[in-house]
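Methods, example record. To illustrate the input and output format used throughout this study, we show the complete record for Urease. The sequence lines were provided to the predictor; the line carrying structure tokens was produced by it.
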Amino acid sequence: MLELRPNCENCDIDLPPNSTEACICSYECTFCRNCVDKQLNNVCPNCGGGFSSRPVRPTSEYRAGVGLNVHPASTLRVHTPYSADELAEFTDMINPIKPENR
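The corresponding predicted structure is encoded as:
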């Protein structure tokens, strides 16, 4: 089950569970759409994969035992350990390769 991390790992903007601006890689690294498009060039700085929009978990329990009230979002904030220069160097190297071919 997705953690639904609460923030962008780069700029630390809040990304609540219903955010349509949250993007994740296959390891669930979480970044905002602005950072993914303008700084990371659709390259996860942690694994080199691409990003997809993070799904929104329903707030209501439409089926018994399934919903945000039963499986709440994470409150643990995660931050990238890389500097802006390190991010740029890594993403520039990987970006020419299509995400499906990485």
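Annotations derived from this record:
The chain has one domain: 22-101.
The chain has a mean pLDDT of 97.
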